[in-house]
Amino acid sequence: RDAAKRDGSECLVIGLDASMAMLALAREAHPGTPLVCADLEHLPFRSGSVDGAWASKSYVHVPRSSLPAALAELHRALAIGGLFTAVLFGGNTEFGPTPDDDFPGRNFSTWPVELLRAVLVGAGFTIDAEKVVAPGGKDTPGITIEATTIRSSPDVIGPGMRLLACGINPSPSSAESRVGYARPGNRFWPAALAAGIATVDRDPTHALANHGLGMADLVKRTTRKASEVTDDEFEAGLARIEAIAAWLQPQAICFIGLSGYRSARDPRAKAGPLPETIGGVPAYLMPSTSGLNAHAKPAELAEHLRAAQALASSSPETGPG
Questions:
Q1: d(CA 236, CA 264)
Q2: For a Cys staple, 83 with which of 52, 109, 124, 293, CB 3.0–4.6 Å?
Q3: Under 8 Å between Cβ of 212 and 206
């Protein structure tokens, strides 16, 4: 794809790898290209400074459960509208060695295409094209995905989640700060602190690492009002959350905002525990924490989060498959 800068000037290409040996090979092939030794999960680039990324069989060396965070890091580094092309392997293995590997000691992740798509969308990308190359001989299938960075707040998810809080979609404040419910006046974080499901205000990374609180959205497209999201987007978003839940198996899911779940699945759904599971996970529905929802008082919102946490506590602990 066209990697030229938007102003038409020459594009600066930087090579990155975690292995000095691979960088030495790159130096021999491209002596004039700047090279960086770095981890894909901690990119040494300022936010929005990269116009595009090409990763051929690079993210295959990231454990599947770590890929959402790694792609969120890439989303941070890419400019809005930045292009991303990745080549990964098809299959269904979390992370491990490949038989007959030419370089013993390496580990690989392989992906079902639909799950990989769900993770990419959750990280703030729209998928423009994908191609699966059928295996030949001992080779595993190759998956090539072309994607574009959108203005969004990536999911903060991982294994061992006690509760997955699923909102409707990011607000401009959340997309700007990359923190869910960051808009001034939103009562989610005060309610979460009051309910004891988080202990640090507006820090989703801390909440995930220390309290097992994950954060996602039904729809990743940023809008000023939830009413700007279409029913089709909600339905596709719920299918994505089902795929994520079936994979990572949080102990419970809490859908925040009645309208999103009602549009996606059940127009008559009421606040409280839902009669159906989502990806095999117990689910809870509660009112929106937006300041525009004046009918829901702060104490009531905190009580809903406590009830959702209690639902998680009553379910057996599971892990990613």
A1: 8
A2: 52
A3: no
